[in-house]
Specification:
The complex is a heterodimer.
Chain A lengths: L6 H34 L1 E7 L12
Chain B lengths: L5 H13 L2 E7 L4 H6 L5 E5 L3 H4 L2 E3 L7 E6 L15 E5 L3 H9 L5 E5 L2 H10 L4 E5 H10 L6 E8 L3 E5 L3 H17 L1 H10 L8
The chains are: A mainly alpha, B alpha/beta.
């Protein structure tokens, strides 16, 4: 019996591959940030420089 | 001079939670999102949530209350926007406070606009303006520096809690921060931070 790949089948496979890559990518990104912070030994925290010491006047 | 305050202390708490040191990076409104997307910072503090921003950054849960209020001496009777008629009101020109009070002020309200918060505070403390429109953090600063003045909150104009933001897709860091905030809400330390720096407890629904 000859097997053929349907158009729907190809699309479904492509979608699953893309989803897998996206999931993997997101996982990698989340691991990277925490790993980078741990490696650096510090976390760079953005604070408004135009604010007085208390805290920024308002969320922008 | 050692810089200190709500955000500085929060940054130190976050760093401790992650087992690292806090490296504070000064930012401005202009380089807010780019500083995150370009990797100049790992985390932004005091950023208000918006659907538009949520497309490019990931937000944590709120970590600080923020609202804008009309404040003034106890003896000045003001309960709502209509009562602003005939009153002099100091505000920082072009800020969210300016926009909000201008929206609701009735004819006859004298809105005096200053170029910075020092001008607003000076006008209020000297009696040049009867009322001022400021954020809860500015009100707390005035209370801390001038305990005898005790401006009273007349009514709120806008509530917009402060969030943190991480780079889009940094789900691991976002989760760690939300876990920290949940534990701080549970053990009361987030409330302690609000009382210490903002001179008021967290709202009940925070």
């Amino acid at each position: 019996m000859k097997k053929t790949l349907s158009r729907r089948g190809v699309l479904a496979s492509t979608a699953m591959l893309a989803l897998g890559l996206l999931t993997f990518g997101a996982h990698q990104a989340s691991a990277d940030a925490l790993e980078d912070i741990a490696k650096a030994g510090s976390i760079k925290v953005g604070i408004f420089e135009t604010s007085p010491p208390l805290r920024p006047w308002a969320p922008t | 001079m050692t810089v200190q305050g709500y955000d500085v202390e929060m940054a130190e708490i976050i760093a401790k939670h992650l087992g690292v040191k806090a490296d504070l990076v000064g930012i401005t409104g202009q380089n807010l999102i780019p500083s995150l997307s370009e990797g100049k910072v790992d985390l932004l503090l005091s950023i208000g949530f918006s659907d538009e921003r949520a497309l490019v950054v990931d937000f944590t849960d709120p970590y600080a209350p923020y609202y804008i209020a009309v404040m003034g001496p106890e003896e000045v009777a003001v309960a709502n926007a209509a009562d602003l008629a005939g009153k002099t009101i100091a505000v920082n020109r072009g800020t969210l406070e300016d926009t909000e009070v201008t929206k609701v002020a009735p004819a006859g309200a004298d809105i005096q606009r200053y170029s910075d918060y020092n001008g607003v505070i000076s006008a209020f403390l000297s009696g040049q303006a009867q009322l001022m429109v400021v954020g809860n953090d500015v009100g707390a600063t005035i209370l801390a520096k001038n305990p005898a003045i005790k401006p009273v909150e007349k009514f709120q104009l806008l509530t917009s809690p402060s969030n943190m933001a991480v780079k889009k897709g940094e789900a691991g860091l976002q989760k760690k921060l939300n876990e920290l905030l949940a534990s701080m809400r549970a053990d009361g330390s987030l409330n302690d931070l609000a009382v210490k720096w903002l001179k008021a407890p967290l709202p009940k629904d925070f």
